[in-house]
Structures are given as C-alpha cells and as structure tokens.
Amino acid sequence: MSINKDVKKITTNTLQKMKERQEKISMITAYDFSFAKLFDKAGIEIILVGDSASNVMAGHETTLPITLDQMIYHAQSVVRGIERCLVVVDMPFGSYQGNSKEALNSAIRIMKETGGHSVKMEGGEEVVESIKRIVSTGIPVMGHLGLTPQSIYKFGTYTVRAKEESEAEKLKNDALLLQEAGCFAIVLEKIPASLAKEVSDSLHIPTIGIGAGGHCDGQVLVMHDMLGINTEFKPRFLRQYLNLSEQINTAVSQYISDIKSSDFPNEKEQY
Ligand code: KIV
User: Could you say which DSSP state residue 160 is in?
Assistant: First the structure.
C-alpha cells in the first residue's frame, strides 16, 4: 500500500476519514528535530512525543520522572522538524491526574509552548472529566488504554492487560467513555488481539495499537525499539526494522581506529 502524499497536512479529520476508508494509520515516537524530520519525510501520519522519552532519552526505568517542562522541550524540537504529520504530545505523569483544571492548564501549556497539534492522556473513566474540559477548549485529545505505563506501580508488571473478563469489560466501557468525551483516537497497548478487534469495531474513532494485534486502525512503535537502537527490549509484538545499534557500533569503532592510526583526517579532510 503506497503512502498518500497528496494529503498536505494530517489532521484529526484525515485520521477519521482513514478509519472510514479502512486505510491503516502509521504512528511512531520521536523526541528530537532530526528524527522527526526523517519520519515526516518518510510519510508517517502521526508522531508521538511519548513520555517514553523518560526511558529512551533520559535513561529512567519508568515514564514517571519526566516533567512537563522536559516534555515541552522535546515537543518543541519535534515540531521544528515536521511539515506534514500530526504531532501528539504525551501529558506526563503528575500533570493531569490532580483535577481537570490542572489537566487543562498542562494541555494549554503544551499547545501554546510547543506548536504541537494534540495531547495524549492515559486512563479511562477517571480522566473523562479532564478530557471533556480539554476538548471543550478545542484541544484534540488521544486516549490510551490497556497497559498504561504511568500506572506501573499499581499493576506491578508490564505483562499483557485485560486478559480477565472483568478487566476486558472495563476496557470496553472506558473506550466508549473516551469516545463520548471527545477523544479523536485511542492507543490500545498490550491487550489481546481479539479484544482490540472488538473495541476497534465498536468505535467510530480510530484505535492505534501497540502489542494489540492487526485489527487496530493503526499501529505505533517506539522509534528506539523498531530501529534497533535499544536492543535489550524484545517483546513479542516488536518488529525490528534496523539494527542501528550494531551499525553505530561498527561505524564508531572504525572512527576510533582511524583516529588512533592517524588515518583520520587525511589530506583532503583538512584546510
Ligand atoms: O510514551 C510512549 O511512547 C507511548 C507509546 C508506547 C504508545 O505512549
């Protein structure tokens, strides 16, 4: 399937139409100008400035430590690199859970200070009031259900979610609540493929899966995982498209050796 580059700018309407046409949506994370520019040029529809920046950019074990200021810095860099895709910025842990006013203030800071196009929040029923308030001011919101990494200490593990009937029922209900609250799309993370299909079929807004099978309306992966920069993380759902870590190791080893042997720089590489 070729990329529809006729679409000048991807908006939430574009995504809605893609769902209606059953055209799959591609999404990837990015945290800086250079990669955002590459992904946008390649034709990706959505860039997520994920709070996974806490892990892959800052080296933290969880997504909890990253701050709103740090997310804003990453999002500003991403927005400078893109022309066509839609930028979604994760609202970090602690920037929206207090109450809907706090959530709205955080979302407004993200929109004003970054030039991003939308925000993403984790959770179901418990964040519905905040989503409604944010959407009512004209800010598009993407939901996130299933494995929600900001609640890792509540669940204790990163295993597949909603395998039990009661959790699956809650997730289905949460998805409908998020749609009713005005979300333009919902990320479904690490849930059984059959449940993701049921949810995707029941919603008129798109679902974007990560470890949620092939029936979602789109897919998202963390760039460091799919490009093979981070090779320690090998979940079953991950398809690794490059082995950048090996290629970088080879290149940098060669660079070191060229310096040590005085091969670099040569005559042509100096003034
Ligand atoms: O922060 C992130 O990268 C995410 C994706 C895993 C969906 O939320």
Answer: P
Between CA 240 and CA 212, with CA 85 as vertex, the angle to 5 degrees is: 45
Report the predicted TM-score, pTM, of the whole model to 2 decimal places: 0.96
For residue 48, how far is its CA from the centre of ligand 1 (angstroms)? 7
Distance between CA atoms of residues 232 and 238, nearest Å: 12
Residue 80 CA, chain-centre distance (Å), reads: 17
- CATH 3.20.20.60 range(s) for the chain read 3-240
Question: What residues contact residue 168 under an 8 Å CB cut-off, 6+ apart?
Answer: 162, 191, 192, 195
Mean pLDDT over each residue of the chain, to the nearest integer = 97
Query: Could you tell me if the CB of 27 is within 6 A of ligand 1?
Result: no
Question: Is the CB of residue 29 below 6 angstroms from any atom belonging to ligand 1?
Answer: yes
Rounded Cα gap, residues 191 and 179, in angstroms:
19
Q: Whose CA is nearest to atom 6 of ligand 1?
A: 222
Q: Tell me the average pLDDT across 10-26.
A: 98
Residues 6+ apart with CB under 8 A from 46: 10, 15, 25, 26, 27, 28, 85, 86, 87, 88, 208, 218, 220
- Confidence class of residue 2 from pLDDT cuts 50, 70 and 90? low
Give me the catalytic one of 122, 125, 164, 189. Answer: 189
CA 140 vs. chain centroid, Å, equals 15
The atom of ligand 1 lying closest to the CA of 27 is 7
pLDDT tens string 190-211: 999 999 999 999 999 999 999 9
Tell the CATH topology of 3-240: TIM Barrel (3.20.20)
Note whether 82 and 37 are within 8 A (CB). Answer: yes
Kindly give the distance from the C-alpha atom of residue 220 to the centroid of ligand 1, in angstroms, as a whole number. Answer: 8
For this structure, is 267 an active site residue? no
